Amino acid sequence: MNIQSLRGGVRLKSAAEIELMREAGKINFEAHMAMRDAVRPGVATIELDAIAAQVIKRHGATPAFLGYPPGSRHPFPAVVTVCINEELVHGIPGKRVLKEGDIVTLDCGTEYKGYVGDSAYTWPVGKISVEAEHLLRVTEDSLTEAISKCVVGNRLGDVSHAVESFVARFGFTVPREYGGHGVGRQMHEDPHIPNWGEPGKGIQLRRGMTFAVEPMVMMGQRDLMVLNDHWTVVPKDRKLCAHFEHTIAVTDDGPDVLTRFD
Ligand code: MG
Ligand code: MG
């Protein structure tokens, strides 16, 4: 989400609140795994959305993206954002059918007992090109790098810098306009977490901060546009994009990933 959508300062979470976020994160993870199992050539993106909706509903939870932001003229009309190939973020699921060689990004948020888990993955559809495989691996690795910087005493800029500096080694770019965010009682809380920045700058990380860290990585140039559906963001050069995200808590024992389970 963009910087302007964030209000209210950074909200620290207690250990009990972090456990509630983990419950939301676990449902969100389950929704993702169910969608992952359904990703294959021939499936329509709206079918993936329905699968996530079903998992979330079964747990008595609420899809965090549906109708977001409230009061908007164009609230998001689905449970999952689905982006194929050159689509970067916020794609709307529909009748489009996945085909062999596509890559598909699924981003989903779940609210449960008043707390939110938010995570995203880019999956291969059947056999994909070597270059697409490389993009997926680098993007996921950049998320691991960024999460490793989410430790007490570091600065937000250390997290941001980790993403861009990592992917730049492979010639990839990150968007300036979209990034991660605080998360917890609301899907989008302060701070905005750019995927680029200067190490040692920005707010100092404290125990109880909870972030959605989400590298969005592009093979081409970083100039973006929003399509006529009011949501789908694509790079103007239409090169491939990938996106991985986890919700994490900053704890005295290091980063605690709240949306991943074995
Ligand atoms: Mg997300
Ligand atoms: Mg997010």
Which helices and strands, and how do they pair?
Elements: H1 15-38, H2 45-58, E1 62-63, E2 80-84, E3 103-112, E4 115-124, H3 130-148, H4 156-168, E5 180-182, E6 189-193, E7 210-213, E8 216-218, E9 224-226, E10 233-235, E11 241-243, E12 246-251, E13 254-257
Antiparallel strand pairs: 1-3, 2-3, 3-4, 5-6, 5-7, 7-12, 8-11, 9-10, 12-13
The structure holds magnesium ion (2 copies).
Question: Can you put this structure into words, describing what you see?
Answer:
The protein is α+β, with helices and mostly antiparallel strands. It has a single domain (11-256), classed as Creatinase/methionine aminopeptidase superfamily (Creatine Amidinohydrolase, Alpha-Beta Complex). It is 27% helix and 23% strand. It has four helices and 13 strands. The chain has a five-stranded antiparallel sheet with strand order 6-5-7-12-13. Strands 1, 2, 3 and 4 form a four-stranded antiparallel sheet that branches. Strands 8-11 form a two-stranded antiparallel ribbon. Strand 3 (103-112) and strand 4 form a beta hairpin. It is globular. 49% of the residues are buried. The model is unreliable at 1-7 (pLDDT under 50). It binds magnesium ion (MG) (2 copies).
Number of helices: 4
Tell me the name of the CATH class: Alpha Beta
Helix proportion range: 25-40%
Give the end-to-end Cα distance, rounded to a whole number of Å.
29 Å
Q: How many strands, which pairing sense, and closed or not: the largest β-sheet? A: 5 strands, antiparallel
Rounded to an integer in angstroms, the radius of gyration calculated over CA atoms is 17 Å
How large a portion of the residues is in β-strands, by DSSP E? 15-25%
Secondary structure category? alpha+beta
Shape-level CATH architecture? Alpha-Beta Complex
Q: What would you call the shape?
A: globular
- Looking across the biggest beta sheet, what order are the strands in? 6-5-7-12-13
Number of strands: 13
Q: Extract low-pLDDT stretches.
A: 1-7
Q: Could you name the CATH topology? A: Creatine Amidinohydrolase
Indicate the mean pLDDT: 96
Bound molecules: magnesium ion
| Total domain modules | 1
The CATH homologous superfamily corresponds to Creatinase/methionine aminopeptidase superfamily
Series of H and E elements: HHEEEEHHEEEEEEEEE
